[in-house]
Design goal:
heterodimer, A: mainly alpha, 0% strand, B: alpha+beta, two-stranded antiparallel ribbon, two-stranded antiparallel sheet, 28% helix
């Protein structure tokens, strides 16, 4: 509680008043990580744009199979996998390294030492992802879901990850804060969990393949935990940090955040087996996975209550703050997608949704509508503090928000509606399979349209970002942060 | 703080040992077997003498074809697993005669169960009445044999050749008047990769019983 209360005394904007000593300390910390965080953010946004292009190619090919069909390089399986890896390892991991290491350093109240080394490790990470995605496109794809990167690129990824992750752990180890805030637990745990998951998956599937379907169990233990024990805790850590910071009020309940953290830690990592419901693996494993998936209701409700109660009553302020608008959108989607996830694990529901586009929609709601939207919020909060200047255009932020929000909502609704129909029809053997395929076409076309919305959002984001980064002279000096409302009444108002 | 770290460690160690290590013990202990077991007189069920063993090992051209299957990313639209008769319609659709079980996969270096059925399941595609000619036409351009499919064509696995004296034996045989057929005087022949891929598809068969998963009729 005390830490949460203290949080609200810290800076609300780079220019707001507060404890002078603390302000100086935060500036020092920001300066220590500036070049590395900027590098990670630039890399992340570049991968986001490239990943969007791969996504659109894959999406259009799903209903226009003749598109770019003359080359093996652009066949569906490779474009789809290039998209997934560009987004997960390129966008996702880079933006985590940027936002969450920065949050970790700030909460631990220690400057990052040897930021240059972190930068070099980051460069190697991006070389690894680049080599990996070239490998996928040129046919060295492994066809193991979420682990498509060929084996010649993965050691580079593992080593550079270790070098990057250590910085977060060191910042925590040398912390000067007397209290450990909930965001720090999440980040520390995730930094530790991810390499374990990745290493075990590489060893047991690629390097020394385990016997038979143990590979599949390991595959989904890994792939689901990339979401559950890597993206999810990082996004929750960011939300737990950003909401009190921007709104200037403490998190609703310290005890709920403890409960939420430990129940997530215990239940989430058993849940992955639900991707194999009905499959050729021992039934007790599947049952364990279903139980854990349903138990996930506990951390989700707890976190949902905690976030909701922290924002409630501040809707107007929240709506005007780019950070809070994105973060709240993400937090709401966390609750929805997790509830869907628990339901989808049930055998009776999985019988319909398994093997269909429903799951694809669900995955995008998790990774995009939840994780990515919160990370966007984190970038909107972090950049002004790193660069000491404001976002140049609130119009572009609006465009980004609406492009992303409408795009992802359309995508999830289209894929889940279409996927449910597909599943029901697939389970009716009297309907010819080709008819089932044809009936998914309108929904797949809607998915492509949703991708165009997302493209618009991402381009607006990138323009605003690079404008802020490079055209320093063009950015007008302002008294306050960029808020999302009419310029006339927005200036000078409290954040 | 040590407590926090221990908790973080224990959480993942719990699922790692519970899901991965135990399934490795259970599935790792499975071996090839005869289709049925017989009583040895002492109440032990043992393998029948002289009977063939299943599952069959992977090998030959089919194994090279599996590499093509992996490189082309077929797994992203096709599963290789059959669910039991009263769960889903896998058996009713004629995709195979029985559900697949862990033992079916023990000899595979890379298990390709898949999680998506944009296209049909392929666990038993070699056991269905589709011959190599059909598969080649379908891979060259799915519209030739299943119009309206959204499967991508794989023309880069085939070569367009000028017909020399006599047409090649393995040239694709298009239906008369097919708009996908090559111009007169030319023929479409499979590359080695296409031959291997089709060999792999034809090798995917669930045509044997296992003691724990008999084919019933």
């Amino acid at each position: 509680m005390s830490e949460a209360l203290k949080l609200q005394d810290q800076d609300m904007t780079p220019y707001s008043t507060g404890d002078k000593a603390m302000r100086a300390e935060l500036s020092e910390i920001d300066a220590s990580i500036r070049s590395a965080a900027l590098f990670f953010t630039i890399s992340a946004i570049s991968w986001l744009l490239l990943g969007t292009v791969f996504a659109l190619i894959a999406a259009f090919k799903a209903h226009q199979p003749d598109l770019l069909a003359d080359s093996a390089l652009t066949t569906f399986g490779r474009m789809r996998s290039a998209h997934l890896n560009a987004m997960a390892l390129g966008w996702g991991n880079n933006i985590i390294f940027a936002v969450c290491l920065w949050i970790m350093a700030r909460l631990s109240r220690v400057p990052i030492r040897h930021g240059g080394m972190l930068l070099i490790a980051g460069a190697f990470w991006n070389v690894g992802v680049t080599v990996g995605i070239f490998g996928i496109i040129y046919g060295d794809i492994t066809s193991v879901e979420w682990l498509e990167i060929p084996s010649y690129a993965t050691p580079l990824l593992a080593i550079s990850y270790a070098l990057i992750g250590i910085w977060g752990i060191l910042a925590f180890y040398y912390r000067r804060s007397d209290h450990v805030y909930v965001s720090q637990w999440y980040i520390l745990a995730a930094l530790f969990w991810f390499p374990w998951l990745y290493l075990i998956a590489q060893i047991m599937i690629i390097w020394f393949p385990a016997r038979g379907v143990v590979q599949s169990v390991t595959n989904w233990w890994f792939a689901h935990n990339v979401l559950g024990l890597w993206f999810t805790p990082m996004a929750l850590a960011a939300a737990y940090y950003l909401i009190p910071k921007v709104l200037g009020r403490p998190i609703y309940s310290y005890y709920l955040s403890v409960l939420g953290f430990w129940s997530l830690a215990i239940f989430y990592n058993w849940a992955g087996v639900h991707h194999l419901v009905g499959g050729p693996i021992p039934v007790w494993l599947i049952t364990a996975g279903i139980v854990a998936s349903v138990m996930m209701v506990i951390p989700v409700i707890v976190v949902g209550i905690n976030h909701h109660m922290s924002v409630v009553g501040f809707h107007k302020e929240g709506w005007r703050s780019p950070t809070i608008r994105f973060v709240v959108f993400g937090a709401i989607n966390y609750t929805i997608t997790s509830m869907f996830g628990s339901a989808m694990a049930l055998r009776s529901v999985s019988e319909v949704t398994h093997f269909t586009h429903f799951t694809v929609g669900h995955a995008h709601q998790g990774v995009y509508a939840f994780f990515t939207m919160i990370m966007f919020g984190g970038v909107y909060y972090m950049m002004p503090r790193l660069l000491r200047r404001e976002w140049p255009s609130s119009g572009l932020i609006q465009l980004h928000f609406w492009g992303s929000a409408i795009g992802i909502t359309l995508m999830v609704v289209a894929l889940q509606t279409g996927g449910w129909i597909q599943g029901m029809q697939m389970n009716d053997a009297t309907i010819p399979f080709l008819d089932v395929v044809k009936n998914t076409m309108p929904w797949l076309k809607a998915r492509s349209v949703s991708g165009l919305f997302l493209l618009v959002g991402h381009v607006a984001f990138a323009i605003n970002f690079f404008w802020m980064l490079f055209a320093a002279g063009a950015v007008r000096a302002k008294q306050g942060p960029t808020l999302l409302e009419d310029e006339a009444k927005g200036e000078g108002a409290a954040a | 703080m040590a407590l926090l770290f221990c908790g973080i460690f224990a959480a993942l160690a719990f699922s790692f040992s519970g899901l991965i290590l135990t399934s490795n013990m259970q599935v790792g202990a499975l071996n090839v077997t005869t289709e049925t077991l017989e009583d040895d007189g002492d109440g032990n069920m043992v393998m029948a003498e002289g009977e063939p063993m299943f599952p069959r090992p992977e090998g030959g051209l089919a194994l090279q074809g599996k590499q093509v299957y992996i490189e082309m990313g077929c797994i992203y639209c096709h599963t290789q697993q059959l669910r039991r008769a009263d769960y889903g319609a896998d058996i009713d659709r004629g995709w195979g005669p029985r559900a697949t079980v862990p033992r079916d996969y023990i000899l595979q270096d890379r298990v390709l169960l898949g999680t998506m059925r944009t296209g049909p399941d392929l666990a038993n595609i070699g056991g269905r009445p589709l011959n190599a000619d059909w598969h080649h036409l379908h891979l060259y351009n799915p519209q030739t044999v299943s119009e309206g499919s959204n499967m991508p064509p794989f023309p880069f696995l085939y070569e367009v050749k000028e017909i020399a004296d006599t047409p090649s034996q393995n040239a694709l045989s298009f239906k008369a008047g097919s708009k996908y057929a090559p111009e007169p005087g030319y023929e479409i022949v499979p590359t080695r990769d296409a031959e291997a891929l089709v060999a792999y598809l034809l090798s995917l068969k669930i045509d044997y019983s296992l003691p724990e998963a008999p084919i019933l009729d």
